[in-house]
Amino acid sequence: MTNLLEITGLEKHYRMGTSTVRALAGVSLTVQAGEFVGLLGTSGSGKSTRLNLIAGLDSPTTGHLRVLDRDLAALSRRDLSQHRQKTVGIIFQSFNLVPSMSALENVALSMMFAGVPRRERDDRAAALLDAVGLGGRGTHRPRELSGGEQQRVSIARALANKPALLLADEPTGNLDSKTTREIMAILKDLNEREGKTIIMVTHDAGLAASYTRRTVTMLDGAVVSDTTA
Questions:
Q1: Which residue from 60, 103, 156, 202 puts its CA 20 to 30 A from 95's CA?
Q2: pLDDT single digits (tens) 160-186
Q3: pTM of whole model > 0.70?
Q4: Could you give the CA distance from residue 71 to residue 86 in angstroms, rounded to a whole number?
Q5: What one-character-per-residue DSSP string does 48-116 give?
Q6: Measuring CA to CA, which residue among 185, 175, 126, 167 is closest to residue 148?
Protein backbone atom coordinates (compact mmCIF):
# COMPACT_ATOMS: atom_id res chain seq x y z
CA MET A 1 0.00 0.00 0.00
CA THR A 2 1.06 3.61 -0.66
CA ASN A 3 1.48 6.24 2.03
CA LEU A 4 -1.07 8.89 1.15
CA LEU A 5 -0.45 11.00 4.26
CA GLU A 6 2.75 11.43 6.27
CA ILE A 7 2.87 13.61 9.39
CA THR A 8 6.09 14.08 11.37
CA GLY A 9 6.55 16.09 14.56
CA LEU A 10 3.53 18.27 13.83
CA GLU A 11 2.84 21.12 16.23
CA LYS A 12 0.24 23.88 16.17
CA HIS A 13 0.38 26.75 18.65
CA TYR A 14 -2.18 29.50 19.20
CA ARG A 15 -1.75 32.73 21.12
CA MET A 16 -4.50 33.47 23.63
CA GLY A 17 -3.72 36.74 25.35
CA THR A 18 -0.33 36.32 26.98
CA SER A 19 -0.50 32.51 26.86
CA THR A 20 0.39 29.97 24.17
CA VAL A 21 -1.91 27.01 23.62
CA ARG A 22 -0.37 23.90 22.05
CA ALA A 23 -3.27 22.43 20.06
CA LEU A 24 -0.93 19.78 18.64
CA ALA A 25 2.18 18.61 20.46
CA GLY A 26 4.60 16.74 18.20
CA VAL A 27 2.12 14.50 16.38
CA SER A 28 3.42 11.87 13.93
CA LEU A 29 1.16 9.67 11.79
CA THR A 30 1.14 7.75 8.52
CA VAL A 31 -2.05 6.89 6.63
CA GLN A 32 -1.98 4.51 3.69
CA ALA A 33 -4.23 4.66 0.65
CA GLY A 34 -7.47 2.77 1.25
CA GLU A 35 -7.55 3.12 5.04
CA PHE A 36 -10.58 4.26 7.07
CA VAL A 37 -9.14 6.01 10.12
CA GLY A 38 -11.08 7.38 13.06
CA LEU A 39 -9.49 10.29 14.96
CA LEU A 40 -10.97 9.85 18.41
CA GLY A 41 -10.86 12.32 21.27
CA THR A 42 -12.78 14.73 23.45
CA SER A 43 -13.22 18.41 22.67
CA GLY A 44 -9.86 20.17 22.81
CA SER A 45 -7.81 17.03 22.15
CA GLY A 46 -6.47 18.37 18.83
CA LYS A 47 -8.28 16.07 16.42
CA SER A 48 -10.13 18.78 14.47
CA THR A 49 -6.99 20.95 14.38
CA ARG A 50 -5.15 18.12 12.67
CA LEU A 51 -7.97 17.67 10.16
CA ASN A 52 -7.84 21.39 9.29
CA LEU A 53 -4.09 21.14 8.71
CA ILE A 54 -4.51 18.11 6.42
CA ALA A 55 -7.20 20.02 4.51
CA GLY A 56 -4.86 22.97 4.01
CA LEU A 57 -7.23 25.26 5.94
CA ASP A 58 -4.50 26.12 8.45
CA SER A 59 -0.71 25.90 8.60
CA PRO A 60 1.44 24.14 11.22
CA THR A 61 3.76 25.94 13.63
CA THR A 62 6.45 23.28 13.18
CA GLY A 63 6.76 19.80 11.73
CA HIS A 64 6.04 18.26 8.35
CA LEU A 65 2.76 17.28 6.70
CA ARG A 66 2.85 15.59 3.30
CA VAL A 67 -0.18 14.56 1.24
CA LEU A 68 0.55 12.57 -1.92
CA ASP A 69 4.22 13.36 -1.24
CA ARG A 70 3.65 17.13 -1.33
CA ASP A 71 4.68 19.22 1.68
CA LEU A 72 1.65 21.44 2.36
CA ALA A 73 3.78 24.05 4.16
CA ALA A 74 5.74 24.61 0.94
CA LEU A 75 2.68 25.16 -1.26
CA SER A 76 1.58 28.56 -2.52
CA ARG A 77 -1.90 29.89 -1.74
CA ARG A 78 -2.98 28.91 -5.25
CA ASP A 79 -1.61 25.39 -4.84
CA LEU A 80 -3.34 25.06 -1.45
CA SER A 81 -6.59 26.09 -3.11
CA GLN A 82 -6.07 23.37 -5.71
CA HIS A 83 -5.31 20.93 -2.88
CA ARG A 84 -8.67 21.72 -1.25
CA GLN A 85 -10.51 21.50 -4.56
CA LYS A 86 -9.05 18.30 -5.95
CA THR A 87 -6.98 16.34 -3.42
CA VAL A 88 -9.26 16.41 -0.39
CA GLY A 89 -13.03 16.35 0.00
CA ILE A 90 -14.46 17.68 3.27
CA ILE A 91 -17.65 16.63 5.04
CA PHE A 92 -18.68 19.07 7.78
CA GLN A 93 -20.77 18.44 10.88
CA SER A 94 -22.99 21.42 10.07
CA PHE A 95 -23.33 20.47 6.36
CA ASN A 96 -22.28 23.96 5.10
CA LEU A 97 -24.62 23.90 2.12
CA VAL A 98 -25.52 27.10 0.26
CA PRO A 99 -29.14 27.81 1.31
CA SER A 100 -30.17 29.48 -1.96
CA MET A 101 -28.93 26.60 -4.12
CA SER A 102 -30.58 23.29 -4.92
CA ALA A 103 -29.01 20.00 -3.89
CA LEU A 104 -27.70 19.49 -7.42
CA GLU A 105 -26.26 23.02 -7.56
CA ASN A 106 -24.54 22.55 -4.19
CA VAL A 107 -22.85 19.37 -5.44
CA ALA A 108 -21.89 20.96 -8.76
CA LEU A 109 -20.45 24.14 -7.19
CA SER A 110 -16.97 22.79 -6.41
CA MET A 111 -16.74 21.37 -9.93
CA MET A 112 -17.52 24.81 -11.33
CA PHE A 113 -14.57 26.28 -9.38
CA ALA A 114 -12.43 23.42 -10.71
CA GLY A 115 -13.29 24.37 -14.29
CA VAL A 116 -15.47 21.36 -15.14
CA PRO A 117 -17.82 22.08 -18.09
CA ARG A 118 -21.48 22.73 -17.19
CA ARG A 119 -22.97 19.61 -18.77
CA GLU A 120 -20.34 17.34 -17.25
CA ARG A 121 -20.69 18.76 -13.73
CA ASP A 122 -24.49 18.59 -13.84
CA ASP A 123 -24.40 14.97 -15.02
CA ARG A 124 -21.86 14.02 -12.36
CA ALA A 125 -23.76 15.87 -9.62
CA ALA A 126 -26.94 14.01 -10.55
CA ALA A 127 -25.09 10.67 -10.53
CA LEU A 128 -23.56 11.40 -7.11
CA LEU A 129 -26.92 12.36 -5.62
CA ASP A 130 -28.36 9.14 -6.98
CA ALA A 131 -25.44 7.19 -5.44
CA VAL A 132 -26.22 8.58 -1.96
CA GLY A 133 -29.94 7.87 -2.29
CA LEU A 134 -31.18 11.33 -3.33
CA GLY A 135 -31.88 10.74 -6.99
CA GLY A 136 -35.27 12.43 -6.79
CA ARG A 137 -34.25 15.37 -4.60
CA GLY A 138 -31.86 17.29 -6.82
CA THR A 139 -34.11 20.35 -7.18
CA HIS A 140 -34.73 20.68 -3.41
CA ARG A 141 -33.00 23.39 -1.41
CA PRO A 142 -31.40 22.61 1.98
CA ARG A 143 -34.39 23.90 3.97
CA GLU A 144 -36.55 21.35 2.17
CA LEU A 145 -34.30 18.45 3.20
CA SER A 146 -33.91 16.62 6.50
CA GLY A 147 -30.60 16.69 8.37
CA GLY A 148 -29.69 13.26 7.04
CA GLU A 149 -30.52 14.29 3.48
CA GLN A 150 -28.43 17.44 3.82
CA GLN A 151 -25.48 15.35 4.99
CA ARG A 152 -25.93 13.06 1.99
CA VAL A 153 -25.70 16.14 -0.23
CA SER A 154 -22.55 17.12 1.68
CA ILE A 155 -21.02 13.70 1.02
CA ALA A 156 -21.89 13.92 -2.69
CA ARG A 157 -20.32 17.40 -2.82
CA ALA A 158 -17.15 16.14 -1.10
CA LEU A 159 -16.83 13.45 -3.78
CA ALA A 160 -17.50 15.75 -6.72
CA ASN A 161 -13.89 16.33 -7.78
CA LYS A 162 -12.83 12.71 -7.16
CA PRO A 163 -10.53 13.46 -4.19
CA ALA A 164 -7.82 11.05 -3.08
CA LEU A 165 -8.67 11.71 0.57
CA LEU A 166 -12.05 12.21 2.24
CA LEU A 167 -12.04 14.17 5.51
CA ALA A 168 -15.12 13.93 7.75
CA ASP A 169 -15.37 16.25 10.77
CA GLU A 170 -17.96 14.80 13.18
CA PRO A 171 -20.19 13.94 10.17
CA THR A 172 -23.00 12.55 12.34
CA GLY A 173 -22.77 15.04 15.21
CA ASN A 174 -26.10 16.69 14.34
CA LEU A 175 -27.98 13.50 13.45
CA ASP A 176 -30.17 11.00 15.30
CA SER A 177 -29.03 7.42 15.81
CA LYS A 178 -30.94 5.95 12.84
CA THR A 179 -29.66 8.58 10.43
CA THR A 180 -26.16 8.21 11.90
CA ARG A 181 -26.16 4.54 10.95
CA GLU A 182 -27.31 5.38 7.42
CA ILE A 183 -24.59 8.01 6.91
CA MET A 184 -21.89 5.77 8.36
CA ALA A 185 -23.01 2.92 6.10
CA ILE A 186 -22.44 5.22 3.10
CA LEU A 187 -18.93 6.10 4.29
CA LYS A 188 -18.09 2.48 5.02
CA ASP A 189 -19.29 1.47 1.56
CA LEU A 190 -17.17 4.20 -0.05
CA ASN A 191 -14.15 2.79 1.74
CA GLU A 192 -14.80 -0.91 1.15
CA ARG A 193 -16.31 -0.82 -2.35
CA GLU A 194 -14.44 2.11 -3.92
CA GLY A 195 -11.26 2.05 -1.83
CA LYS A 196 -11.75 5.67 -0.76
CA THR A 197 -9.29 6.79 1.93
CA ILE A 198 -11.24 8.36 4.81
CA ILE A 199 -10.14 10.15 7.96
CA MET A 200 -13.03 10.83 10.32
CA VAL A 201 -12.97 12.96 13.46
CA THR A 202 -15.30 11.75 16.20
CA HIS A 203 -15.74 11.84 19.97
CA ASP A 204 -17.78 8.60 19.85
CA ALA A 205 -15.62 5.54 20.61
CA GLY A 206 -18.45 3.18 19.68
CA LEU A 207 -18.87 4.78 16.29
CA ALA A 208 -15.16 4.52 15.58
CA ALA A 209 -15.06 0.88 16.69
CA SER A 210 -18.09 -0.09 14.58
CA TYR A 211 -17.18 1.54 11.29
CA THR A 212 -13.50 2.46 11.00
CA ARG A 213 -10.64 0.03 10.45
CA ARG A 214 -8.20 1.97 12.61
CA THR A 215 -8.65 4.25 15.61
CA VAL A 216 -6.12 6.94 16.53
CA THR A 217 -6.89 8.37 19.97
CA MET A 218 -5.74 11.86 20.89
CA LEU A 219 -5.43 13.63 24.23
CA ASP A 220 -4.09 17.12 24.93
CA GLY A 221 -2.76 17.47 21.39
CA ALA A 222 -0.86 14.18 21.32
CA VAL A 223 -1.54 10.65 20.02
CA VAL A 224 -1.98 8.30 22.97
CA SER A 225 -2.98 5.13 21.09
CA ASP A 226 -3.21 3.76 17.55
CA THR A 227 -5.13 0.53 17.13
CA THR A 228 -6.23 -1.46 14.09
CA ALA A 229 -9.40 -3.55 14.06
A1: 60
A2: 999 999 999 999 998 999 999 999 999
A3: yes
A4: 16
A5: HHHHHHHTTSS--SEEEEEETTEEGGG--HHHHHHIIIIIEEEE-TT----TTS-HHHHHHHHHHHTT-
A6: 175
